[in-house]
Amino acid sequence: MLSGFAAAMAGNPDSVTVAIIIGVCVVLFVLAFLLPRLSRYPQRGVDRTLATGQGAASRGPGRLGRWLQKPFGLSRRAADESARKGREGRGKMPT
């Protein structure tokens, strides 16, 4: 018998996807805060990976293509925003 977080992860694949995206955002934020210049390479890798998925999903017919690509676009935006906020936070730190 699973409880709490483990039960949510075992029963719903969407929960796993959300947890992975949140984890990526946290890693990018911390990396951007600690190493602002070097964080651009992992950010580009995540962006490229999600862009590939978004491009493949957009090939669906009509509105279905737009609906299928939406989660990829939102995830890209969230990852880019978290990395940007990490760099901003580092820039506001006193020297």
Entry summary:
This protein is mainly alpha-helical and 95 residues long. It has four helices and no strands.
Report the portion of residues in β strands.
under 5%
User: Could you give the distance between the termini?
Assistant: 51 Å
Number of discrete helical segments: 4
Radius of gyration: 16 Å
What is the string of helix and strand elements?
HHHH
Give me the secondary-structure category: mainly alpha
Overall geometry comes to globular
Number of domains: 1
Helix content: over 70%
Structure description:
The protein is mostly helical and 95 residues long. It has one domain. It is 82% helix and 0% strand. The protein is built from four helices and no strands. The longest helix is centred in the last third of the chain and has 31 residues. It is globular and about 55 Å long. The protein starts with a helix and ends with a helix.
What is the fold's blueprint, element by element?
Elements: H1 5-11, H2 13-34, H3 40-57, H4 62-92
Considering the chains and any ligands shown, give keywords for the structure.
4 helices; mainly alpha
